[in-house]
Specification:
Structural class: alpha+beta
Shape: elongated
Number of helices: 9
Order of helices and strands: EEEEEEHHHHHHHHH
Length: 217
């Protein structure tokens, strides 16, 4: 029996306004040998929704639901094992690979996190969540310019993706010493998340440093 499976980032269920995955079983689903195209629907008030079409069996749906439950309880290894089963059963989909990448990241295995996020991007190179998550891994492993490219790829798809916007601002500020990039992206971030007092202080600090730089010229 085929069923409809909702794949939602378990990392922070409060961020559903940023993006949710829906894997929908349908008669016209793509063959398993070809990647499922991620359809991105931009919703200005609540973020974006990403859908991928595939045939999903009940066992796969149950494995995913159990994986989310295990990860939310902090049972990393069991959650990863079940997510791996979902990813193996649906190799055409990006969503399970992204969740697996996030799970490995949280477990401290950046090698496997990167591997799974790159596999997700092989299916859908412009996937904003995969690009943002890979950017985080690349930043943590010292590949700052590559991380910037991934954040920018995520923002090219959805400029209002405030997690990627903030990540890019921090990267430019602390790791690339590109103050103009940092200020521009912090300001863009604040238009989406105006209540972030910490970012507001960072903007003031950047403005001060930029003024000091101009005075020294």
């Amino acid at each position: 029996m085929m069923t409809r499976l909702a794949i939602i980032h378990w990392r922070n269920l409060a961020t559903l306004s940023v993006g949710a995955f829906f894997i929908a079983a349908c008669a016209s689903s793509v063959p398993r040998s070809k990647p499922a195209v991620a359809h991105i629907e931009i919703q200005e008030q609540i973020g974006f929704t990403i859908t991928e079409d595939a045939r999903v069996g009940d066992d796969t749906r149950l494995d995913y639901e159990q994986a989310v439950s295990e990860l939310e309880r902090g049972n990393q290894q069991e959650g990863i094992r079940l997510l791996q089963a979902v990813a193996d059963a649906t190799p055409e989909l990006s969503a399970p690979r992204i969740d697996l990448g996030i799970a490995y990241h949280r477990a401290g295995d950046l090698v496997q996190a990167e591997r799974n996020l790159r596999l997700a991007l092989e299916n859908n190179p412009s996937h904003p969540i995969a690009n943002n998550e890979l950017g985080i891994v690349l930043r943590k492993t010292g590949r700052f310019r590559e991380a910037r490219s991934n954040y920018e790829a995520a923002l090219a798809v959805y400029p209002g993706y405030h997690y990627a916007r903030r990540n890019l601002a921090v990267l430019c500020d602390l790791y690339l010493a590109d103050l103009d990039c940092a200020l521009q992206n912090y300001q863009a971030y604040m238009t989406t998340v105006p209540s972030d007092d910490e970012a507001s202080m960072w903007i003031k600090d950047l403005q001060y440093r930029l003024n000091q730089r101009e005075e020294q010229r």
